[in-house]
Amino acid sequence: KHSLVRPCFLTSTLDSAMKLSRVILPLLLTTSVLLTIAAFVPQALPSQSLTSVLQRQKAPRTLLGAATAGEGTPQPPKEVTLLKDLRNLRDLKVVDMHQHFGSFEDMGELGKKHLTEEIPVLPDFLKKFLLKTSSKFTAAPYGSFLGMKQQNGFARIDVGVMLSVYAPKTWGIASQESLIKHLEDPRNIRDGHPQFVGFSGVNMTDWDNSKEIAIANLSKTLEHPLVVGIKLAFIHNNFALDDRRYDPIYQTAAKYGVPVYHHIGSTPLQKLSDKTEAEREKFRRTYLVEFLEPAIQ
């Protein structure tokens, strides 16, 4: 009896799914077309040009872009006592330190596979269609309706830190050139200040043979006044953070007076549980103080 029940159940389930897809798919296609049209509608540009802002970025760079010529060194935020004086919150600057831009197409194969598997029930072709379409808005700095700038506004974030990334097998490549292009977009400026600043990633592919080129590209990127730091991720760079091969990057950071942001530990795409004990030991060296402190010193 059971052998007869299973095919009937599967058949009815598949039939229901097909009927549902006939309703959902046209709606999704219509929504996608409307959003695509909206993406080409020009947005109002701020009155102050980006050139005038960049010309003022002569003083030491800060995440909030507050250190401008003639204004002196920016003061630390006022002390906020939430329960006593909520009005001080309007003076509190909020920085989101980790914002990725890009698209589904730019991701590596592991990244695409991970995101596709995160969506339940739907067939893969529909999942990929949804991810391609949504990323053009939600992962675009100035995408219509749900772009990164709009999302920051909803969350009352003053400054978003956009990251360039070199992780071709996982999250993909968001180049230094693309980062600068987004930072120089006139829509980045509001009330005379940038809404985004950047941290530059480093291409460490074949590092022993290409580090001179990578450091030259990093230095060129750090010349830009809105690129205010360096971002490294052990899981993508494949060296423990106390490895001496990072020294040229640290020296470049010192030269330009910028911080280095370390993304430590694992990611959903490369889990510790899937690694050998030797590989797990390399991970531990990225976040245990006894390894990191000597490297920092």
From TrEMBL:
Gene3D superfamilies: Metal-dependent hydrolases (3.20.20.140)
Segment forming the signal sequence: none
Keyword flag Membrane: yes
Annotated Pfam families: Amidohydro_2
Domain Amidohydrolase-related residues, every copy: 211-269
Transmembrane segments: 20-41
Matches recorded under InterPro entries: Amidohydro-rel, Metal_Hydrolase
Keywords noted in UniProt: Membrane, Transmembrane, Transmembrane helix
GO-annotated molecular function: hydrolase activity
Protein name: Amidohydrolase-related domain-containing protein
